[in-house]
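Workshop exercise sheet. Pairs work together: one partner reads the sequence aloud, the other fills in the structure field after running the prediction. Swap roles for the next sheet.
Pair: D.N. / O.F.
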Amino acid sequence: MKLGWRRVRQAVNVLHDRGQTDESVSSAVQKAEQHRGAIANIWEDLNSLVRIVRNWRSGDYREVPWRTLVFSTAAILYFLDPMDVVPDFIPVVGFIDDAAVIAWVMRAIRSDVSKFRDWEESQPDPAN
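Structure field:
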């Protein structure tokens, strides 16, 4: 499963609007928490996409290519859409398409995600 051009254009528009970016990321985190059991298989990947966008938006991480930001945001927006290819309210299978989109995006941006995770690990622990 791939992202459609409509979703990619939507992601570009969201990334150009700080409020929409912040709202989309926050909504994705909230929805992920509510459905943590149903999305256990994509939990870490979805959270990586959220962290990439969040850290780019805050200015903490700017080494991310635009394509990776757009794909990450488009995947987040797909996850947020309750009436995507397989509606989220359908028990057991409602998040299968979300998982497929996130997996496809993760494969497409694998090296950038790896670099981001390395950068994250190099950052001082905020708890200290």
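Discussion prompt: Residues 44 and 50 are 10 Å apart (CA to CA). What would you look at next?
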